[in-house]
Specification:
Structural class: mainly alpha
Strand content: 5-15%
Distance between the termini: 23 Å
Oligomer: single chain
Order of helices and strands: HEHHEEHHHH
Number of helices: 7
Number of strands: 3
Length: 150
């Protein structure tokens, strides 16, 4: 399966059918994902042509991450304050695993980025579930798409 954020070239025009075939899923979830990306300014639909992956500037990416820091840092702090000691130990263990994975994959940036992204997503879901008790909400959590630099 192709990983959307790391495989599609900015500036390129794709059809929904082409993307659904590439990803091995039906057109409906692809169309829904593209609509969400379009609402975030990451793709643009072109009538009777398809969807174009937009290029993001370094400034765009900096703004995205500044907003994420502004929103996620206080949430992480609050979650950490509410976390029982046994959950802190599990989190510290997960963080150590992430660090070890980064060291092992240092010679493979694409593999390392994917491994780190998957590990962080799992860790975030664990923290959400542990701090709120909302298992379903934790499983539904999806981080923002990580854009590629032009």
């Amino acid at each position: 399966m192709t990983h959307f954020a790391s495989e599609l070239a900015p500036g390129t025009l794709y059809s929904v059918v082409e993307l659904s075939n590439q990803l091995g899923v039906s057109r409906t979830p692809v169309r829904e994902a593209l609509l969400q990306l379009a609402s975030n300014g990451m793709v643009r639909f072109e009538r009777s042509k398809g969807v174009r992956i937009l290029k993001l500037s370094t400034q765009d990416i900096e703004e995205i991450y500044m907003l994420r820091i502004f929103l996620e840092a206080p949430a992480a702090y609050h979650a950490a304050q509410q976390m029982p000691q046994e959950h802190r130990e599990a989190f510290q263990s997960a963080f150590a695993g992430m660090r070890a994975a980064c060291e092992v994959l240092a010679g493979n940036p694409a593999g390392a980025a994917k491994a780190v992204q998957e590990h962080l997503l799992g860790t975030l879901r664990m923290l959400i579930q542990q701090s709120t008790g909302d298992t379903a909400g934790a499983e539904e959590y999806q981080p923002p798409v990580i854009p590629r630099l032009p």
